[in-house]
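User: Structure with flavin-adenine dinucleotide, tokens only please.
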Amino acid sequence: MLRLTEIKLPLHHQDESAELKAAILSKLAIDESNLVSYTVFKRGIDARKKTDIQLIYTLDVEVQDEAHLLRRFAKDPHVNLAPDTRYKFVTQAPSHLKSRPIVVGLGPCGLFAGLILAQMGFKPIILERGKAVRERTKDTFGFWRGQALNPESNVQYGEGGAGTFSDGKLYSQVKDPKHYGRKVLHEFVTAGAPEEILYVSKPHIGTYKLVSMVEKMRANIIALGGEIRFSSRVDQLHINEGQLTGVTLNNGEVLSCQHLVLAVGHSARDTFHMLYDAGVYIEAKPFSVGFRIEHEQSMVDACRWGPNAGNAILGAADYKLVHHCKNGRTVYSFCMCPGGTVVAAASETGGVVTNGMSQYSRHERNANSAIVVGIHPEQDYPGHPLAGIELQRALEQAAFELGGKDYRAPAQLIGDFLKGESSAELGDVKPSYTPGITLTDLTSLLPEFATAAIREAIPAFEQQIRGFAKADGLLTAVETRTSSPICIKRGIDFQSINVKGLYPAGEGAGYAGGILSAAIDGIRVAEALALDMQKGANID
Ligand code: FAD
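Assistant:
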């Protein structure tokens, strides 16, 4: 199979398949009888010239005389042999297992660790503190409508993990030489995701599709001999002479186990404390804090797509912004949700946390993203590996107070924030956050350096997206769960550096940031664990 890159079609083409076929024949200078088939591997968008937007394709092409063409195009960087991206299992479990691996957490990391282990025949037991996704949806949407927060069933906890109610963006910057990302996307498509996620350059799924996909993947794991237990929180680890021997659950049940994937996400603060008390080696890690910013999506579309705003292929536009500030801090946009809503993402009573989500259609009126400032343990929360958690919690509790102590989020118009004046009245941008916002002054919510950095960055971002600093755009607070505040150190064997059999994984352990990278990490860790079980004394 040949891989052709940089094949271009104008946005306004007539017939994609006919025009791509013609482009292939012209690029390779072959006639139609030589072309067997082709598939689109990736489709990107080049919108640098807004009046002449181009679609940029990577195509996998089957031809009659591949060897000859490879020789002919040996010096052309855009004609190559397509890499084999099919997933290959590293091992298979024998039929008689002495023990089963445990996976803790059913977010993307635990889901893929569990799925791969099940597909290899290791019959994992998956423990998830939250509820099955439908029941969890009721609790989460209930909270957004003003019902009480359930600290064990919310945006952060439950089947599907933290990204279930999200924009479902499925791209990542992690290095992926073994093409695990393809495996993840293929499994998602098998579970009902739109096929286009396999080829568009910035795939997303949206909330409602994710819910039913997660259910299908659960059924698949169970059909393969895996077991999934909800409302099962791991409250204690048993460690004997540096080897994991078992866990205690919240109902007091003890499960013995020598191989455990710990994929608890970045919000499992009680679990982090439990691990620290049990002696698991943990380090503090940098993360970011800030606000959600909301604008009208039409403003972003007009800026990114110009006269092509509204085109169905382009969809709702996104942005990615970075500004290095005079005070040495960096402010950046994060988890941008085109055509989406700001959501209440708290998991602790008495705290307000913001995040964002969209539906697949991305048809909501507003664009939102986190505008956050990077912070570092040595400088901003020194002294204890878990000090970052305390900082997050303090900010979330301060936001709760400022919002009126009923889970409304404190918010301020951008113009007022830049002037340092409290907001009293909304402008054109209507807030999407539920259960609601309280207009106020956010100046003193974040540390002074963070407020100063964001004040400097917003006008700088205006240079890239006209309207970004518009006075009636909205800031909603507080954004604290951008990534894990800790790293549970693991060695090259993927096991904790001081507890054998414990495989820290995913975002909570500090090895991923986002759905795709967490899922990829789950696969990596599952493979390492399976190989270790295979070679060890755990198998007859
Ligand atoms: P998690 O998804 O956090 O899963 C951890 C699981 O472990 C949870 O289900 C939790 O209940 C469970 N758990 C915790 N402690 C225990 C315990 N002691 N015992 C048993 N179970 C436990 N990323 C993207 O790439 N694209 C997006 O569009 C996107 N949008 C987001 C929107 C929102 C609202 C949020 C909150 C996050 C979003 N993210 C997005 C981030 C993404 O969700 C995370 O990066 C990803 O879910 C991390 O996966 P994980 O499996 O490592 O952890």
